[in-house]
# Entry
Amino acid sequence: MDEKNTLGIYIHVPFCLRKCRYCDFYSVGYSKKLLELYVRAVVRNLKHYSDKSRVTDTVYFGGGTPSLLTPLQIAEIVSNIKKYYNLSDIPEITLEVNPDTVNPQKLENFLKAGVNRISIGVQSLVAEELEFLGRTHSPEKAVKAVLDVYSAGFVNISCDIMIALPNQTAEKLRYSAEKICRLPIRHISAYILKVEENTPFFSENIQDILPDDDVTASFYTDMVDIFSSNGFSQYEISNFSKNGSESRHNCRYWKCLDYIGIGPSAHSCLNGKRFAVKPDIQDFIESPVQNTFITDENPCTFEEIAMLRLRLAEGLCLDDFPEHKDDILKKIPPYIREGFVELKNNTVSLTPKGFLVSNELISRIIFNNLNLIFI
Ligand code: SF4
# Structure
């Protein structure tokens, strides 16, 4: 199947138990009634974008906290996806789970509803770090949630971990990372904490007490080593997998493949345009069709494709872009000599050392920006 002729569906579930102190994703408090109205609006929009002309091979329930939906609500959404789309026989259907919102029975019912991949927001297994982040769960609760997910019958399980927190030490990071690796999971997403505007962290000036670049770089390198020695290979700057269990849905983003986003603040890249949904739950549940605004009239340019491809360990095949090939081949030799970039079979990729300074490298290789300081 030509993957260019496939589709992904992202459903943004904008409800949370409590707002985490670092988070700038759109989410609101929830009630049973609001969830019901939200699900109705999701189904209306699934019908609106209906597309049976190509295979839908990934569905991703992200948030927010999608595990606040009941298994029946997930089943209703999945059955409408089957009704209005040509859902693959072997789709990847991911549900993001907050450890505080699930129990063994609910998890078994999510599996029956069609979910076959669970992504758990663990973030850390050190109690004071979780408290600092404003997470509602404890380390014990997170571990139990992962084991419950596994016992419910899921084999494709991912955990998120966050690094470079204030006061984090190499020992604390090692503790969380090694313990996560020992869980029955196949995928890890590891993010460096960034303090975004409009978050409590920003108002509290947490950005001033983050570890400096050198410490962050050494944490990142340690973490890559721990994951790799536990069998998780790095397939993207922040993502690691075992047994080929890459996130098929997230790979759509890095490969510039089409996806429809449904729900307040969801983004889409569809038929040559990027657009986003107004981040307003009331507007979403009241509008016959979600209100969107264009964010990019001309996505999927060479620069954008190259930038996204270089995030992936598999890299950028220059044979696919003959008009840019000579220019890139001229620029990369110094970075190859320094161990930041590799060139194999006309494919350029960043090394783990290169991933550490990916923004700078991509600017130099793709955008001709030579004014940046090379670290
Ligand atoms: S990090 Fe997740 S659980 Fe926390 S507020 Fe943001 S979306 Fe909600």
